[in-house]
């Protein structure tokens, strides 16, 4: 298990990078890995955007919030 875990300082690197980076260099809502934009993971999320929107609409209808 220790082979897959990161130290606290290593795990915080993406957050620290996002805080100190110029906001014009960041992608809003982007997934970052190793302080770089994770293109493959972001593509998967983009592919699921339509499904997420449909789920949101169904949830609104079921809870009578819309």
Q: How would you describe the overall organization of this protein?
A:
- By secondary structure, the chain is mainly alpha-helical.
- Helix content is 53%, strand content 6%.
- Strands 1-2 form a two-stranded antiparallel ribbon.
- The longest helix has 14 residues.
Strand content: 5-15%
Mean pLDDT: 86
The unreliable regions are: none
The proportion of residues forming helix, as a percent range, comes to 40-55%
Biggest sheet strand order reads: 1-2
What would the principal axes of the Cα set say about the shape?
elongated
Main sheet specs: 2 strands, antiparallel
> What is the H-and-E element order?
HHEEHH
Distance between the termini: 45 Å
Broad structural category: mainly alpha
Please tally the β strands and state the result.
Answer: 2
How many helices in DSSP terms? 4
Radius of gyration: 17 Å
Short description:
The chain is 53% helix and 6% strand. It is mainly alpha-helical and 66 residues long.
Keywords:
2 strands, mainly alpha, two-stranded antiparallel sheet, 66 residues
List the helices and strands and how they pair.
Blueprint: H1 8-11, H2 13-20, E1 32-33, E2 36-37, H3 39-47, H4 49-62
Antiparallel strand pairs: 1-2
